[in-house]
Amino acid sequence: MSHAPIDILKQRHTAIRRSLAEQHLDALVVTAPANILYLTNFTGSSAIVILTADRVEFITDFRYVTSIRDMQRAWPELMLTIVEGAYDATLVERLGGLSLTRIGIEAAHLTVSRHHWIEAALAARPGTMSAPVSLIATEGIVERARVRKDDYEIATLREAARRLSTVATKVLADVRVGMSEGELALAIDWRIRNGGFSRSAFETIVASGPNGALPHARPGERRLVEGDLVVLDFGGVYASYCVDLTRTVSIGPPTARAREVYGAVLEAHDRAIAAVRPGASRLDIDQAARDTLGRYGLGEAFGHGTGHGLGIDVHEDPRITRRRPDIDTRDEAVEAGMVFTIEPGAYLADWGGVRIEDDVLVTADGVEVLTNVTTELMEI
Known about the structure:
This protein is about 35% helix and about 25% strand.
């Protein structure tokens, strides 16, 4: 569970309110669980938040009343409404009691049918609204605020990365000839929970031998044999924040081709990290990795982006991705406070693959690598 201090939560609210004012919105109805967590620390499964210029209204049901009451002791300004029937009916009732005309909704997180129902219900309220109410579709208001991490988030992600690095060191010592991919994945998941994480951040990837050519391979019954390269990709959720790491190991002495491919991916990884600094283009960071692999004849073997943002979600902005001549890819500079992965890879059908991934923080004058695990090709 996130435990951001109340003053940090209030700073986040101020940023969102600034965006609402710029868009001439009286309120934002927040329905995305990750965004609710960011604004309130709430980690339950059901809630709605109404953020206006001067209040935070929290709508939830009886299951979470005790935890919200506890929150209110430290944050008495938080206004609680308990759902007694349906969430959307309660939302309409609360919106109807406020002097609002332009209400923002999270278009990416509210279905069309719910939008239509809420809009019709507000219009049908008898004589309670001082003016016609409009529901305004918004895009990414809270998500844009989440891209740059605040001090609490940076401290949390640093600690999470430190813990994941410790887990990874133990995981590398667990790998044995004859283990199945599934057995190793279970061992990794146990290490993650034992390392202080509430859960794995995603389904752990163990891809051995030719399965390593599949970037998101699912661990199966194949057993690790001499000569395999094994891609190990895993992460954890610590205090509601996600971290992610990948290493590739060799079962027995690596072949010359394995050393060649691994060396190319490692150089791409290092060059991409070296390109990270405030003001750097996210597309240029990706290009640093892509150009490196291209020089080794592996450009076509690298089909995904170089990285993705980390935070409450394991995949969020910024996206460190390629330029696409066929698509108008928006270029954006990375900024201090952003946290994302650097994870180039090379995937060769019927042979296998290599991926090396670390988590980085953009600092005021460069980059800090948060994860700390050897990037040398380990021979098991």
